[in-house]
Design brief:
heterodimer, A: about 0% helix, globular, B: mainly beta, 4-stranded antiparallel beta sheet
């Protein structure tokens, strides 16, 4: 099975830049998606196919994928960005999520 | 607008069955594969199952294979998750989600719209 590893938590000051890594063996050779889940809400797609933003997602969100790490970057972090973030890939007839990272805005 | 409205959650005893439903609207339902994803209390997202747009192909997570069954009714724009032999580890909020058309294959496409979730509690 294919494993995706994310830090349990990331903290960032208001207005600063948050970077959330997602590690997997040669993940750069796979297609990575990112989801945001605010407390009590359903997940929302924020980055698809490594680098693309869905319609309506702020340009402050960006993605990069290379080597063994995919990274979600959130610029000029706002209070509304506080949420759990998950990376996701496809592997051998299973769809794999990372363990999730809780982003705390200080 | 795209909407996925879920129903069917509740409290059920271990060993019993429950069926979740997800009603789709605002898009051509028959053109999309669909997923079920769950989140147990205190845990992260866990993929459960997928059904292809024509219903021919279904894949399941090993944790539910043989106990859960995914189906779709394109005449009603609905998908269903039949959950049998439930155990306490199945306690979670279950989400249906649409597969986008942003990829050449539904295998690698993202889940672009999600239902509101249905809470399933398995407890004696």
């Amino acid at each position: 099975s294919y494993d995706l590893t994310q830090p349990v938590s990331v903290s960032v000051a208001l207005g600063q830049t948050a970077r959330i890594p997602c590690e997997g063996n040669n993940i750069g050779g796979r297609t990575v998606h990112w989801y945001q889940q605010r407390a009590g809400q359903a997940p929302v797609s924020v980055i698809y196919r490594d680098t693309n933003r869905p319609f309506g997602i702020s340009e402050r969100f960006s993605g990069f994928n290379s080597g063994n790490t995919a990274t979600l970057t959130i610029n000029r972090v706002q209070g509304g960005d506080e949420a759990d973030y998950y990376c996701q890939v496809y592997d051998s007839s299973t769809w794999v999520f990372g363990g999730g990272t809780k982003l705390t805005v200080l | 607008q795209v909407q996925l409205v879920q129903s069917g959650g509740g409290v059920v005893q271990p060993g019993r069955s429950l069926r979740l439903s997800c009603q789709a609207s605002g898009f051509i339902f028959s053109g999309h594969a669909m997923h079920w994803v769950r989140r147990a209390p205190g845990k992260g997202l866990e993929w459960v199952a997928i059904i292809s747009k024509d219903g021919r192909y279904k894949y399941y997570a090993s944790s539910v294979r043989g106990r859960f069954s995914f189906s779709r009714d394109d005449s009603e724009n609905r998908v269903f998750l039949q959950m049998d032999r439930l155990n306490t580890e199945d306690t979670a909020t279950y989400y249906c989600a649409r597969v986008s058309l942003n990829s050449a294959s539904y295998y690698t496409a993202e889940l672009d719209f999600w239902g509101q979730g249905a809470l399933v509690i398995v407890s004696s």
